[in-house]
Q: What sequence folds into this?
């Protein structure tokens, strides 16, 4: 493999690994902050226990999200120097702003939260986890505005042999970036809701700390239903953005070969890439695809045949990932709804089958999130910046295949080890359940100082 | 003053603050296994930086991000030319970060000592390699119109290594003084003594560095052209002497501040010496990366200036506030009863 293929593989490995931890951080930070706020307002020790238990899992996950994020910032320069030179005038800004505005806030207040239990008042302590939650989500905003610019570049001109920013506001209001932000954060909330429901389900099956995990499950089920419904809305926004700005990606997602008006949405499709057609198309709902894309059932959808072969993204991975992600998204709405109904009727303990299902379902939102990024990034190929710069022209010239082999092997080993340790620790502390000995803590929880 | 010059100054400030803050984290990480005699002491040592190290590290991310946003060509070439060195720094920082979080969560002696090793290497390796990288930037990198003509091993030249050793010793001194201030009893005493003893080799290496810099780099040219600028290296030397003066009297907080000034002024000395280069070429000055030929457009620099002027003071304010909250030295019994601590 050449340096380009290796660098692409390495970016995929490191970005996907990073994105195992990020979505849980996005959602669980908010849930833990909510738990601690409930503790502050009700003084109910149950909420303090919840904050501590879920907070511990949050921190184990958070550490890996942070350290794997540093890799991403380094990699643009290390492996994609031509990209960084060509678009750095625009792309560097949101990354630098993210560090200044969001990452500082998150990293400073997480320290206060971990170590500040006896140093600041209860309210200030709860405020610090809220600041972490807000900063984490704000971080996502800047990163996704940066990615949104790669998907749909706006506010720039080609000048001095590179892309230069001429309209910062255009980047901030880029519909593609904002849709991606909305879609990504709410899907992170789904990951967190299913994580909490899954671990709670495990404990409820074991009959350990039942009131604690019933309360956790119920809270997560409400959060989950709200989030899954928001993902549906966000997904609709995003699909419309893709259809409007990246017709080749949209055609690949839906496997549309011929340009057509009033395109139907086929429930069952089997693409045949070699013959440039679909070998199976079943249960088409007339005009629905056009309606989803442009909110007009007569609108024209561009087909893949309108693009030369080298300008088409890899069709099968884009198509399959999109279908699977969408199906999972629908499943999550259903599961959250059932979960909430059972929880509200207080039937959780007797619903063994459902609890087992929810335990295993905990892993599915992670998969859906990865599939979503495959659609976004593979579907944008062969472009690194859509319509402006090809991925093949973006790779570092000074870096040899040997160097990238070495780093790729290094990342695989290091990340493999970290994944192993992280899963071990998460399992250990998740199984352990909440700490019942809060007497020390409550007694020493002085409201001194600030 | 142009925006490129402004961003060059900000770039220097970001690195200086980063080294001043994460510098003592590195020092503490390097000293943890030597100053901590048992597990309780080892825990106290890492918990002394627990609340702040993560926020300190973000100054590096911001320095990197600012390089990207303000000088994208320098960011691109620096990171791709120094690929292997940066990769090693990255792995070291990854291990250091998770080691703090994971060390206390395993429950066995072997687990703890494995993460202690990660804390040591995760602190020593970046300290050394940041020094090596900056030493090589001061000398210039072998680059011309056809690209870069070095490898990881070309970086390990005598001047690069000497700068690396200087960084390691500066950070050990800095970390020892931090521990003398932020811990109590035995650890504090041992750390104070160590700081006083380590000052001698630090001085020797610092003097050697100043002399070698004259022969290996062009850094002094700017200072000879503008005598007022000499105040910066002079302050560095005075602050370095101040460490000894205060340290000998047992005034470790004052010595720690002196060590902060030393690190900032050493960084400024290097940065002023580089101007207007960000990375000089050791082969042909025409291929040096300067703040003028590698910067972003003025429009981007203006946007970034507004962002920096609003948010950097806010960041400094809340970070100072957090340091204030954790101002008291910590003791072993406090840590051992705290389930949330590292």
A:
């Amino acid at each position: 493999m050449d340096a380009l293929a290796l660098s692409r593989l390495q970016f995929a490995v490191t970005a996907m690994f990073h994105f195992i931890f990020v979505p849980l951080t996005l959602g669980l930070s908010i849930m833990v902050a909510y738990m601690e706020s409930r503790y502050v307002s009700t003084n109910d020790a149950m909420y303090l226990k919840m904050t501590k238990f879920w907070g511990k899992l949050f921190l184990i996950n958070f550490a890996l999200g942070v350290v794997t994020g540093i890799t991403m910032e380094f990699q643009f320069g290390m492996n994609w120097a031509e990209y960084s030179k060509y678009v750095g005038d625009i792309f560097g800004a949101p990354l630098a702003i993210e560090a200044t505005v969001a990452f500082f806030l998150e990293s400073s207040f997480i320290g206060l939260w971990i170590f500040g239990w006896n140093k600041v008042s209860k309210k200030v302590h709860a405020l610090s986890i809220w600041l972490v939650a807000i900063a984490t989500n704000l971080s996502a905003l800047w990163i996704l505005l940066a990615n949104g610019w790669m998907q749909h570049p706006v506010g720039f001109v080609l000048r001095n042999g590179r892309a230069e920013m001429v309209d910062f506001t255009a980047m901030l209001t880029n519909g593609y970036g904002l849709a991606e932000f909305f879609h990504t954060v709410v899907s992170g909330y789904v990951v967190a809701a299913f994580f909490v429901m899954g671990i709670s389900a495990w404990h409820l099956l074991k009959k350990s700390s039942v009131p604690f995990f019933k309360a956790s499950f119920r809270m997560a089920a409400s959060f989950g239903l709200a989030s899954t419904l928001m993902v549906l809305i966000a997904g609709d926004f995003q699909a419309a953005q893709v259809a409007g700005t990246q017709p080749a990606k949209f055609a690949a997602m839906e496997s549309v070969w011929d340009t057509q008006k009033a395109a139907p949405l086929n429930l069952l499709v089997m693409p045949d890439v070699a013959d440039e057609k679909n070998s199976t198309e079943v249960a088409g709902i007339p005009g629905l695809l056009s309606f989803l894309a442009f909110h007009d059932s007569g609108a024209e959808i561009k087909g893949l045949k309108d693009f030369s072969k080298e300008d088409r993204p890899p069709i099968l991975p884009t198509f399959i990932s999109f279908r699977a992600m969408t199906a999972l998204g629908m499943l999550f709405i259903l599961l959250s709804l059932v979960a909430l109904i059972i929880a509200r009727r207080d039937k959780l303990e007797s619903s063994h089958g459902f609890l087992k299902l929810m335990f295993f379902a905990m892993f599915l939102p992670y998969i859906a999130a990865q599939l979503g990024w495959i659609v976004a990034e593979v579907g944008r190929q062969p472009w690194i910046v859509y319509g402006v710069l090809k991925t093949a022209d973006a790779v570092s010239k000074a870096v040899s295949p040997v160097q990238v082999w070495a780093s790729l092997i290094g990342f695989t080993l290091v990340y493999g080890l970290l994944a192993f340790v992280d899963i071990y620790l998460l399992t250990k502390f998740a199984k352990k359940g909440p700490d019942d000995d809060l007497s020390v803590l409550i007694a020493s929880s002085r409201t001194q100082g600030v | 003053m142009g925006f490129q010059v402004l961003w060059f100054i900000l770039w220097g400030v970001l690195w200086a603050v980063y080294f001043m803050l994460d510098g003592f984290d590195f020092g503490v990480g390097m000293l943890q296994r030597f100053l901590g005699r048992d597990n309780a002491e080892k825990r106290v040592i890492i918990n002394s930086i627990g609340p702040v190290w993560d926020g300190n590290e973000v100054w590096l991310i911001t320095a990197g991000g600012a390089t990207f946003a303000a000088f994208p060509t320098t960011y691109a070439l620096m990171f791709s030319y120094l690929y292997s060195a940066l990769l090693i720094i990255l792995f070291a920082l990854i291990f250091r970060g998770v080691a703090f979080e994971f060390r206390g969560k395993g429950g066995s002696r072997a687990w703890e000592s494995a993460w202690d090793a990660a804390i040591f290497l995760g602190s020593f390796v970046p300290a050394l390699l940041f020094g090596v990288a900056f030493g090589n930037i001061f000398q210039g990198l072998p680059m011309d119109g056809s690209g870069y003509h070095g490898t990881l091993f070309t970086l390990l030249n005598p001047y690069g290594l000497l700068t690396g050793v200087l960084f390691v010793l500066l950070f050990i001194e800095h970390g020892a003084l931090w521990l003398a201030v932020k811990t109590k009893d035995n650890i504090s005493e041992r750390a104070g003594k160590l700081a006083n003893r380590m000052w001698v080799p630090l001085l020797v290496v610092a003097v050697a560095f100043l002399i070698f810099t004259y022969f290996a780099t062009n850094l002094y040219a700017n200072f000879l052209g503008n005598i007022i600028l000499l105040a910066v290296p002079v302050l560095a030397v005075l602050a370095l002497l101040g460490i000894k003066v205060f340290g000998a009297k047992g005034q470790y907080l004052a010595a720690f501040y002196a060590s902060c000034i030393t690190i900032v002024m050493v960084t400024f000395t290097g940065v002023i010496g580089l101007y207007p280069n960000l990375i000089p070429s050791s082969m042909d000055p025409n291929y040096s990366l300067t703040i003028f030929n590698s910067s972003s457009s003025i429009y981007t620099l203006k946007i970034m200036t507004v962002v920096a002027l609003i948010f950097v003071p806010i960041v400094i304010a809340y970070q100072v506030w957090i340091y204030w909250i954790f101002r008291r030295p910590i003791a072993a019994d406090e840590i051992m009863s705290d389930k949330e601590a590292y």
Chain B touches chain A through 65 residues (CB under 8 Å).
